[in-house]
Amino acid sequence: MRRAPLWNVCLMLVLLLLPAGVATASVAPDQQDFAELDAFVEQTMRASGLPGVALAIVRGDQVLHTRGFGVADAQGRAVTPQTLFLIGSNSKSFTALAIMQLVERGQIDLDARVQKYLPWFKLADPEASGRITVQQLLNHTSGIPGSALYSSWATPELTLQQYGLRMAEVSPDRAVGSSFEYSNANYNLAGLIVEAVSNQSYAEYIEQHIFQPLGMHHSAATRDTQLDLDLADGHQWWFGVGPFPRREMYSQANLPSAFLASTAEDMSHYLVAQLNGGRYGSAHVLSEGGIKRMHTIGPNTENIAAPEQHGGAGLGWVMTQRNGVPLVTHSGETFSFKSLQVLDEQNGLGFVLLTNASNQLPSMDQPYRALYDGILTRLEGWDSSATGLDLHAMYAMLDVVLLVLTTGILLVFVRLPVWAHNFERRNYAPGRRLRLSLTLVRIAIEIVAPLAMLVLVPRVLAQDSGWPVVLQVTPDLGSWMIVASGLLLVVGIALAVLLVRVLSRPQHSAVMAQIDLGDWASA
Asked: Domain ends where: 380, 407, 440?
């Protein structure tokens, strides 16, 4: 996912916009001693609680270093360079590569309309549907919003074909081709184009035309293969405790955008091909010109980053600069995995980072920022930059706020019988109208506020996709919100019932007959 969905681009941009240190040296030597870098990774893992990390570093056409750290699952299986991780949105570069292979075979034209290859494709806006090109899908300039079909992440039975047909429900949120907006839907549609043109399933195509030629023998494009190859367990934090292992829900509809799986060793082969004009060993998966086009900023994508970052989107990749060095990069995130690819083409250097834990707090990226910054600056010989508030500090602040709110809600709930007893004894004669008005306001708040939370939270946290997705994205905070809203709603309904019962008694009926809303408003 996603992350994942919009979370993925948030992670990617946070990583790209890290404060730059002062360049002090060029790229590290080929025979660099990686002991210090490995020690840094282990120390960062201990500080953040990351359960498992896999790393691969390449230079030119050589794999310099691969290493696994920590554990892959609850049984304590050690992470190795051959341990399988979900790579999230790093799947997109594979989908873009597949499209480019078909372009070079003359089967796809990047400037052709999507409907040339998917005649049934349509959005809620028919005119926009007919204008979107293949390249606009890959550059994220199609106008399709990032929230499109986000609910599919919690609908494992939805197929890729069904996903494509459901795009008819989606309205574009900007003019076609006008600007960048990250959307998984773009790449799921691109996956459908791969299927339509190649007459293969997306998974079969990726395995045959990319995994096999690059010797990516431990990578997987289907759920069954992922499980057969012992996919690592994902992990999530609960209120800062953990992280705890979880078996992530698989979304076949989002396979081209987020659900491929690979290993550090296999991804090192992929990075070598990206740095060497599509070649790994004797295998060629794309021409040098094709790779260069994938790594070139596309039209109207510069809004992806601040102007000083010189950023923009290519085909499955993002381009930016740090310390004056151009970087080609992409991050990936599901609900319990994260990954990162970085290419410094100027110095022929690249690395991939795979982790099996994710967290959706505003500080969600801190462990990964720390790893990214520490690895990149060590490889480049730069001064390291600060990475901000750490995950545990952010969770500590959140937990204090939630504890205060929870205590208040529980006190109201526990004291409900006492409040009810006192309430029944109150006198609502005309001279006490203000008390009645305040009681009505309180009841309204305690009914409307939790209902608003139950309606609005999925819109904010899960792109209006419902609570099942919220509980996938952030199970701890989502669970707390449901319980807290339920308790407040029970209190509000109980108070409303009690008020009606009290005011229906004979001693209050005559008073109520003399009181109208104008009296309450002026009380």
From this structure: 380
pLDDT for 199 beyond 50: yes
- 376-427: per-residue pLDDT in tens? 999 998 877 656 667 777 888 888 999 998 998 888 878 878 877 776 666 5
> In this structure, how many other beta carbons lie within 10 angstroms of the beta carbon of residue 196?
18
Per-residue pLDDT at 433: 63
Same domain, 197 and 228: yes
For residue 305, the model assigns a pLDDT of: 74
Please state the φ and ψ torsions of residue 217, each to the nearest 5 degrees.
-80, -15
Q: Is residue 375 in a domain?
A: yes
Listed in sequence order, the residues at least 6 apart from 178 whose beta carbon sits closer than 8 Å to its beta carbon are: 141, 143, 300
Structural domain range at position 408: 391-522
Using an 8 Å Cβ cutoff, are 11 and 338 in contact?
yes
Nearest residue to 20 via CA among 329, 319, 354, 320: 320
Helix/strand/coil for 113: strand
Q: Which two tokens stand for residue 81?
A: 């360079």
Q: Is the pLDDT of residue 26 over 50?
A: no
Same domain, 407 and 356: no
Whole-Å CA distances, 69 to 154, 189, 378, 433: 30, 36, 18, 68
Q: List, in sequence order, every residue forming a beta bridge with 186; answer none if it has no partner.
A: none
Same domain, 404 and 355: no
Residue 289 placed within a domain: yes
Q: What are phi and psi of 170, to 5 degrees?
A: -95, 135
The reply to whether 147 and 258 lie within a common domain is yes
Residue written as tokens 């006490």? 432
What tens digit of pLDDT does each residue of 418-455 get? 877 776 666 555 556 666 777 788 888 888 888 888 88
Q: Is the pLDDT of residue 465 over 80?
A: no
In a domain, 337, yes or no: yes
List b or e across 117-151, with b for residues whose CB sees 16 or more CB atoms inside 10 angstroms.
bbeebbbeeeebbebbbbbbbbbbbbbbbbbbbbb
pLDDT in tens, 240-287: 888 899 888 889 999 999 999 999 999 999 999 999 999 999 999 999
CATH of the domain at 355: 3.40.710.10
Residue type, 213: P
Q: Please check the confidence at residue 17 and state whether its pLDDT lies above 50.
A: no
For residue 385, tell me if it sits in a domain: no
